[in-house]
Design brief:
Elements lengths: L2 H5 L16 H5 L7 E2 L7 E6 L5 H10 L5 H16 L1 H9 L3 E4 L4 H7 L3 H13 L7 E3 L12 H7 L4 E3 L10 E8 L4 H12 L4 E8 L1
Parallel strand pairs: 2-7, 3-6, 6-7
Antiparallel strand pairs: 1-2, 4-5
Helix pairs in contact: 4-7
The protein binds zinc ion.
């Protein structure tokens, strides 16, 4: 047991057993969702692995608001395990077509406040365990209020207007195939904005992957 474990012990968010954010017993109770193809939008398909409800919604909330950055590794492992178990052919397809993981960025203001961007950490960890490259291609150009606290869908859509630009470092050499990474996809407005700007820059195939949706 590390000093950190002694100071901040981890309990299962579902049954409160000591040890992990989700104990093995509760983790196996999670049922994965299926791929949603969206050919008439900028996005080709979306895979949200699990329903956005407790205990996963508690885990994501903790990650977003309580500065628990070590739970990003746990979330990445959950995503990886589910992909290997339930979507092995999709994972092989992504690997063979050299899909690049692109995290949804935070605005610099929010990142400074929080100290890290959880989707960037998840992307980096996933890149290693899934053997897919990752690049920070997107920049958040406009400050948007926290998505989770907004109940009004219209307000959300308005809020995301022109939210992203392409990182000028990578603009001349964008990958052909991209998987946008977010921890949770609710209305899909953020992903839609991100995929629109990528498609406008001749990215061929765009997927979205999230832990929950
Ligand atoms: Zn449990």
């Amino acid at each position: 047991m590390s000093l950190l474990d002694l100071l901040f012990p981890t309990y299962c968010l579902s049954c409160h057993a000591y040890g992990q954010y989700l104990c093995p017993g509760c983790a196996t109770k999670l049922k994965s969702l299926s791929v949603v193809y969206t050919p008439d939008s900028f996005l080709d398909a979306q895979l949200s692995l699990f329903k956005y409800k407790p205990p996963l919604s508690n885990l994501i909330h903790q990650l977003k608001y309580e500065f628990v950055s070590d739970s990003t590794n746990f979330i990445s492992d959950l995503i990886s395990t589910s992909l290997h178990q339930d979507f092995p052919n999709l994972l092989k397809y992504w690997q063979s077509e050299n899909f690049t993981l692109v995290p949804i960025p935070l605005h610099w203001y929010r990142q400074n406040w929080r100290g890290y961007n959880q989707t960037q950490l998840i992307s980096q960890h996933l890149s290693t365990i899934l053997k897919l490259p990752t690049q920070e291609l997107l920049i958040r150009s406009k400050y948007t209020n926290s998505q989770v606290s907004q109940k009004d869908k219209l307000n959300r859509l308005h809020n995301l207007d022109a939210a992203f630009t392409i990182n000028p470092e990578h603009q001349s050499n964008l990958p052909q195939n991209i998987i946008i990474i977010d921890d949770v996809i609710t209305t899909g407005a953020t992903i839609s904005q991100a995929s629109q700007i990528l498609k406008q820059h001749q990215v061929k195939s765009i997927w979205a992957l999230s832990l929950a949706g």
